Hints:
Blueprint: H1 2-9, H2 31-64, H3 82-110, E1 119-126, E2 129-136, E3 139-140, E4 144-145, E5 157-161, E6 165-172, E7 177-181, E8 186-190, E9 202-206, E10 212-218, E11 230-236, H4 238-253
Parallel strand pairs: 1-6, 5-11
Antiparallel strand pairs: 1-2, 2-3, 2-4, 6-9, 7-8, 7-10, 10-11
Helix pairs in contact: 2-3
Amino acid sequence: xxxxxxxxxxxxxxxxxxxxxxxxxxxxxxxxxxxxxxxxxxxxxxxxxxxxxxxxxxxxxxxxxxxxxxxxxxxxxxxxxxxxxxxxxxxxxxxxxxxxxxxxxxxxxxxxxxxxxxxxxxxxxxxxxxxxxxxxxxxxxxxxxxxxxxxxxxxxxxxxxxxxxxxxxxxxxxxxxxxxxxxxxxxxxxxxxxxxxxxxxxxxxxxxxxxxxxxxxxxxxxxxxxxxxxxxxxxxxxxxxxxxxxxxxxxxxx
Length: 254
């Protein structure tokens, strides 16, 4: 399976580097990504521990409770075992409850909105590209729009500052798309017809101090050029972001 995964992704130039210590997830570039990483790791640890216990019990039963050749008679047949039945009912119930608690806690944190972000980005998805309109300090920059491309570096680029809160407002006028930056460890469907004041079309992140250019894509099959609906997110220092704003405003004035 690992070889198949490596072969399937080797031809793509926008696949982030994964690490076994992170459960094969890419290195996150947002504070919220840390929550997802912790939940993911915890779920894998619990699943592997459960699997290990089950395998040990199966081997124990197969080795120590198999039929002996020297004895032709069947072992004692027990129809009910109330303690065991209570045990294998309570343990899954406790496990599911724990999973539910941590999932609900982190889901609430991931969808929490401060109401006062440093940067606001209106994301408009369309067949088959993106339009980004950034508002910072009460000033709205000229939209950055793209077209279908084969390389994410050629698509529209969203420039964001490090160590800042960013609010995304997602909209679509045609079909369902999905806004996905793998290093966010988070994606959100872009569904047509959701009113502007509906919280279901917004989410917020806090960027980390990890400057770089990161690939983004549509994660919902949306038509013939879905695979070419690519973009990039460029994380820059605050000084570089201020220079970018000044350049965009100068270009708009001209």
